Amino acid sequence: MVHLKKKFKIIISIIFGIFSFIVLYEETTIFLEGHFSLIGLLIKHPDREYLSCLFYTSISLGYILFCVFYGFFKLKVLSKYGIYEDHNTDSSSLLFTSVNFSRVSAPLCCNFLNIIGYKKCAFNYVLGDINLVPLLGPSLSIFFPFILVLFTIFHLFDL
């Protein structure tokens, strides 16, 4: 049983590594003119049925949400706000976490729609035309993905 658990962890780490590389590629090339989206290619293929499109969308968006929300669950602010085991989380920590989850969900969905290249959908119809960073201008949206690459390198080398 221990050998199966070790092999399972290796397989899962390889799969998550591939997904992470794909998401990092998508995020860094999202603002380029000739953006080639691997996830968008899977989803927008003309021969795709509804269920296969839903499956690929759920897998890719689910992985992105898992990565973001896993970090939120591990986040503890000054040992005051955090999610604790055995029902030890107080109400202010639950409220803090739920507010942060709700603040992040819509931008993540907008980011995912930009990754796959959908411009005319119900999400954009309800929210209107979204200017990604109106205060800092369009140049930040070009250089911001490179900050993501820098943070990834910092994390990879444990800096």
Keywords:
6 helices; mainly alpha; 159 residues
Verbal overview:
The protein has 159 residues and is an all-alpha fold. It has one domain. Helices cover 69% and strands 0% of the residues. It contains six helices and no strands. The longest helix is centred in the first third of the chain and has 27 residues.
What layout of secondary structure does this protein have?
Layout: H1 2-28, H2 38-43, H3 50-74, H4 91-116, H5 122-127, H6 138-156
Helix pairs in contact: 3-4
Q: What's the total count of β strands?
A: 0
Largest sheet: none
Distance between the termini: 35 Å
Count of the domains: 1
In DSSP terms (H or I, runs of 4 or more residues), the helix count works out at: 6
Radius of gyration, whole Å: 18 Å
Global geometry: globular
Q: What's the order of the H and E elements? A: HHHHHH
Helix/strand/pairing class, anyone? mainly alpha
Unreliable runs: none
Q: What percent of residues are in strands? A: under 5%
Specify the helix fraction band. 55-70%
As an assembly, this protein is single chain
What is the average of the pLDDT values? 78
